[in-house]
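Purpose: get a first structural picture of the assembly so the mutagenesis plan has something to point at.
Setup: three entries, given in the order below. No constraints added.
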Amino acid sequence: MENVPPFLVPLWTWLQGFQAPEALRWMNWTIPTALFFIAIGVMLLVMTLLELVWPTQERKGFWPMPTTRGDRLFIGLLGAAFLHLGWLGITDLPLWWASILALGWFTVEMRYG
Amino acid sequence: MRKRSLGLILYFVFLLLPIYWLLVMSLKTNQEILGPITFWPENLTFQNYFTIFNDPSWYTGYINSFIYVVMNTAISLTVALPAAYAFSRYRFVGDKHMFFWLLTNRMAPPAVFVLPFFQLYQTFGLFDTHVAVALAHCLFNVPLAVWILEGFMSGVPREIDETAYLDGMGFPRFFFTVFMPLIKAGIGVTAFFCFMFSWVELLMARTLTSVNAKPIAATMTRTVSAAGMDWGLLAAAGVLTIIPGAIVIYFVRNYMAKGFALGRV
Amino acid sequence: MNKTWNNAAWLLVVPVFLLVAFSAIIPLMTVVNYAFLDIFGPGETYWVGTDWFRQVLASDDFQGALVRQLIFSGMVLLIEIPLGITVALAMPAKGWTASLALVLMALPLLIPWNVVGTIWQIYGRGDIGLMGWFVTRVLGLDYNYTADPLAAWITVLVMDVWHWTPLVVLLCYAGLRAIPDAFYQAAAIDGASKWKVFRYIQLPKLRGVLLIAVLLRFMDSFMIYTEPFVVTGGGPGNATTFLSQQLVKQALGQFDLGPAAAYSLVYFLIILLFSFVFYTAMSRIGQAE
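Result (structure tokens, whole complex):
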């Protein structure tokens, strides 16, 4: 993992101490993908709690159909995934440019979608 | 009017000729098949069917297929019934997203899952068992069952539930003695669809089995590639796979469309 | 449609969730993991980042298969939907002919997909198949689906039309039967032409079932594997290799786990997008009615 930014190295080394349980070894877990799924899990959890505390109202944004908070999250994530894919398919430039773009899109979608 | 029925008859000819041809081929000898074309069997023979019924490597394929198909139908119905009830009667946190997630599993190509399935089932020691195929087919059959049943259940007035609960009936008793008899037709059609989609699927069934649970579909494709071309035998095996469905179709003909429409006609 | 809020209903959904999650989420997580690794054997893996995605998106195999897939699915919809509506309109409405027509109509839908392939593999051959014999000997055309890409395409397409148009017919038939007679009587009083009846009474009522027909036909043709696998094996060359075939070839044939996983994810995302669009459209129509 030579491309880990220096300030993250201690955290990275700490994370590497974790081992996947034997039964899950075949899935070939890696730290980035594990973090990715943890993030998704946390998102779902937060959305559920938010929903219980502060139920969503359907509202009309720039899409033809009214959307709920969950819908906007899904559209935002799907759009971000396609932005990354498109970036990989079209240019050889570093991927994090696409990530910045995706973040912008995600914000717009959550706010105005 | 006459032009219309003529067109319909032509369509049915288009529909039935390939099946007729398969049937005819299964009743011919291989010499006749490979010789000049004949439109019906001139030397009628049932030899191809005898071969299948007497050769374990053939007929166990049918038995294996039946075992996992029946298991799958039972599992799918058992878990889908309560879930469909929840979807048709209540709103709960994330219900629509849950429903959408189920739909994506019906729509996802089995090819995407085949690669990890192989390893997943190997890890759990399920490879080459009937349970493995039954569970794998749940991926698309459970969502399908939930969709169809939800459609049928939404057609039952909610007053029936409320009256039953007011009478002090508990949920399990109400569900089994009052509600399930009301949607008998729906359960029948759902069972039929689970049976059918598990029966027609090849890719997963073939990937997850090798010997002990090898389905008839895999037996057929492997024979094509290995033993060269015993066309008559192949056709006979094909005809035998059509018969179970053809019989059941008759009983569900009036509900079939509703099943295909995922319960929403 | 005013359902009561009850979060305890989740308990009834848990079994479904667990069962489908076992077969859907664990494999999907595995695919995501594999897509970023070069895998030589158990424990011998190397992080490659997004290399596989770049490779897959740039590869001719994937692009070709995607283009063929889109053309195929498009043609399937263009042929099967209008044909299905036409046949449904011509179907008898009641009596024993209606029952018979329904049963016969459903027959192709119940044939295992590999047998559908076998049927057409035999049926299309010039030496032993009725259709092949008719086209080559009676019409005198040069037709050989194992050698000529165009013939292979036509065979696979005709096979799909044969296999799945009945589904569209059944759905439309059910939709048509749901139209009350009063509508037709009103139209007759107004002296509406057959076309007007179709355009302004039948077609709007068919909207719901047609959407489902389009959804199912699009999605199922988008994952077609078994039938062309049996008939043409994806050939001649790559002419009838669609997305699923390409994927299975890579995953199980060559055991290229990393690239196959990246391929799977791209494929899955495309499906996810289409599912979402269709699902949204469907629930909107459901609400409008």
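The domain at 55-228+247-260 of chain B is CATH 1.10.3720.10 (MetI-like fold).
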